[in-house]
Specification:
The complex is a heterodimer of chains A (253) and B (245). Chain A is α/β, with parallel strands linked by helices and 253 residues long. Chain A has 2 domains: 1-87 and 163-247, 3-Layer(aba) Sandwich (Rossmann fold), CATH 3.40.50.300; 97-162, no CATH class. Chain A has 9 helices and 10 strands. Chain A has helices at 52-59, 82-85, 103-113, 119-132, 148-161, 178-195, 206-212, 230-235, 239-246, and strands spanning 14-23, 26-36, 41-45, 67-72, 75-76, 88-91, 166-170, 198-202, 215-220, 223-228. In chain A, a hairpin with a 2-residue loop joins strand 1 and strand 2 (26-36). In chain A, helix 3 crosses helix 4 (119-132). The N and C termini of chain A lie far apart (46 Å). With 245 residues, chain B is an all-alpha fold. Chain B has one domain (2-244). Chain B has 8 helices and no strands. The chains are: A alpha/beta (253), B mainly alpha (245). The interface between A and B is medium-sized, with 22 and 15 residues.
Chain lengths: 253, 245
């Protein structure tokens, strides 16, 4: 169980319309259109270099699009008020923990900087959330002392403290062992059921995607190949989709 | 450097606008202040002592030969207070602290820590730039006052100890007090305040503008130090010209 301080509030809807982005003349996103319903778990899959992480950076307002728009409950992500109006969080693939702060300070950073709780409350909330992600008692450790998987769990804890209405996960199970990958998947589901948060997950992990997604989008070279429920995506006849979904090692006998 | 002048001025302006938040960030200001003092005090002490000593050594014998022994204290005093202490300490701080600021912020940029701050609706200017700017703007003038005093001491020691100069300690101080006015020290301290703002804003801007990996961080550090020193020298002339009036 995550902490008990999360208030019941619903997730936000997300609309992406005609999103395009180029870097140095190379088009990375080529006119993406999709919609994520409030409270939905939407997984974006695709091979490396297909533009998934760039898309996520646009969805949380870290990159301005060349063309197209991203709307959160009908309001542009570029609008100045969006960050104060809605609680958005992102779990970076690398964790992106502040290396000069302890684990506890990292997790409590949002609460501390926005002065949402007293220092005693922040300490209690941080301890609870760290326990929930299996890192009880690591408050005083520095990020440099943690393994890749532990950093990822701290990053997830830091995102959960925000009590987000939209949470973006960039490869949440990379660097995690299969057992903890299941825990993270269950946690994403649990959060969605409990506070109806909208979750957008970018992942290569087919088990995670088909295990938690309400809908899945497969993208390649900045274009969406298909969007649908996990069953619809599995039945999609596009050879590129099938190749991505069924790629496996084949050892010669 | 000059192609980024607009961005640097904009960052400075945004930092100025966020100044009312400085009290909220006082713990970070204090941490940065301690870091600057801790990292620089010994070097400031050594550098300023020997700068004062070498001015006395260069000017002393020439002036004594011409019967102007009483002017040594004044020359050492004025040179240190108005010019050498502010400029040399600013260059030292650009190398010691400006490089550290650019490296730390640059590394945070490269490793997405600044992106993480933005996703948490934490303004990197309030969180990273403001405390550093306030700390360096307080610390450098204080270090310069300290450097002026130690430099004068260095000059006085050499003036008495060197057999070619041989000006008694008391005579050196008496002449220094006659020549150096409070306004001269204030001019030097004001210049150092301006230099502190230059080092702070240039280094923070360079850190925030870092791209690439470790090589990008290295480039940012070099640019931060070089650009700071170039601007210090240019502004030294401008400020000296303005303060002469």
């Amino acid at each position: 169980m995550i902490n008990n301080n999360l208030n019941a509030h619903s997730g936000v809807g997300l609309q992406v319309r005609g999103l395009r982005k180029s870097f140095n003349g190379q088009e990375v996103l080529r006119g993406l259109d999709f919609e994520v319903q409030p409270g939905e778990i939407f997984v974006i899959m695709g091979p490396s270099g297909s533009g998934k992480s760039v898309l996520l950076r646009h969805l949380i307002g870290l990159e301005p699009p060349d063309a197209g728009e991203i709307l959160i409950n009908g309001e542009s992500i570029q609008s100045a008020e969006i960050a104060s109006k809605y609680r958005l969080a992102m779990v970076f693939q690398s964790g992106a923990l502040l290396n000069s702060l302890t684990v506890g300070e990292n997790v409590g950073l949002y609460l501390t900087e926005h002065r949402l709780n007293t220092p005693e409350e922040v300490t209690r909330i941080v301890a609870e959330i760290l326990e929930d992600v299996g890192l009880k008692g690591t408050e005083e450790k520095m990020p440099g002392e943690l393994s890749g998987g532990m950093k990822k769990r701290v990053a997830i804890a830091r995102a959960l403290v925000i009590e987000p209405q939209l949470i973006l996960y960039d490869e949440p199970t990379s660097e995690l062992d299969p057992l903890f990958s299941v825990v993270i998947g269950e946690e994403i589901l649990h959060l969605q059921r409990r506070i109806h948060v909208t979750s957008l997950v970018v992942s290569h992990d087919r088990d995670l995607a088909f295990g938690i997604a309400d809908r899945i989008a497969v993208i390649q070279e900045g274009r969406i190949l298909t969007i649908g429920t996990p069953d619809e995506v599995k039945r999609n006849s596009d050879p590129l989709v099938q190749k991505f979904l069924h790629a496996d090692f084949k050892r010669e006998p | 450097m000059f192609e980024n002048i607009g961005e640097i001025v904009l960052l400075f302006w945004r930092t100025l606008l966020s100044l009312p938040l400085a009290w909220r960030q006082r713990q970070k200001v204090f941490d940065q202040f301690f870091e600057i003092g801790n990292a620089s005090l010994l070097m400031v002490c050594v550098l300023s002592f020997f700068i004062g000593a070498v001015i006395a050594l260069q000017t002393g014998p020439v002036l004594v030969d011409r019967g102007l022994a009483s002017a040594v204290g004044g020359i050492v005093g004025i040179a240190l207070a108005k010019e050498l202490a502010p400029v040399m300490m600013a260059i030292l701080i650009a190398g010691r602290i400006g490089s550290a600021m650019a490296a730390e912020i640059g590394s945070m940029r490269v490793y997405q820590e600044i992106d993480a701050l933005r996703t948490m609706n934490i303004n990197p200017i309030h969180y990273l730039v403001l405390p550093r700017m306030v700390a360096i703007a307080i610390a450098l003038p204080l270090l310069v006052i300290f450097a002026i005093l130690v430099g004068w001491l260095g000059g006085a020691v050499v003036a008495e100890a060197n057999s070619h100069i041989a000006i008694p300690f008391q005579a050196f101080w008496a002449n220094l007090r006659d020549v150096v006015a409070m306004k001269d020290v204030a001019n030097g301290v004001f210049k150092s305040f301006c230099f502190a703002l230059i080092v702070g804003v240039v280094s923070c801007h360079q850190g925030l503008a870092t791209i690439g990996g470790p090589r990008g961080i290295g480039r940012s550090v070099t640019k931060a130090v070089v650009n700071s020193i170039v601007l210090i020298v240019i502004f030294d002339y401008v400020l000296t010209r303005v303060l002469l009036k």
